[in-house]
Known about the structure:
7 strands, binds coenzyme A, 7-stranded mixed β-sheet, Aminopeptidase, 2 domains, alpha+beta
Amino acid sequence: MEIINMAQLNETQIIQAAQILTDSIPIGWPTLQDALDEINRLLIPENTMLAAVEKDIVLGWGGILPGYNGNVFEIHPLAVRGDRRKQGIGRAIIAALEDEARKQGGMTIYLGADDERGNGETSFANVDLYDDLPEKIKSFSPGTHQSGFYLKLGYKIIGVMPDANGIGKPDIYFGKSLRKL
Ligand SMILES: CC(C)(COP(=O)(O)OP(=O)(O)OC[C@H]1O[C@@H](n2cnc3c(N)ncnc32)[C@H](O)[C@@H]1OP(=O)(O)O)[C@@H](O)C(=O)NCCC(=O)NCCS
């Protein structure tokens, strides 16, 4: 497997990437066309989009978007093919995105992880996040949510947006310093 810049992908591979996105996060991109539109929107020189590719097949991909005058990079989005998860591909894509953000002068890398599926998956779902948030952060539990992946990779909760996706459905901000690595 190699990690390559998505600007190098051919049309078939872009469709594979879009299929992974709509399959992985249908709540955000319900159709293949929605996912293709998102990839086309993201594939601009300011952003860096990287894909994990094996034998010309896209297995996963993710991007970083600069903000705060280039001091901060947002990871958006990240998705690995359903049948190839838990094999280190997500970790490899994130490591490559972190390297790229650092190379471009970033000091912080972060992402928003929406806890929006079903009745909520993390301990932040359906609770009053205005009441003693520091304690709730200390005792955070990811449940089945992808938050567990980011915690494994050393990301810390750096904030939360209550009700971002409806009542009791927050967006959880995870961040990591690029200066300490
Ligand atoms: C989240 C996602 C990108 C992880 O990709 P992956 O290739 O399966 O992750 P990796 O195999 O590199 O996992 C790295 C570590 O995190 C752990 N991990 C992976 N997914 C996890 C999860 N959902 N919860 C807890 N831990 C998880 C792995 O077990 C592994 O731990 P280990 O090093 O102790 O073995 C993938 O599950 C995915 O595409 N999910 C759907 C889309 C999504 O949620 N994207 C993120 C939006 S914020």
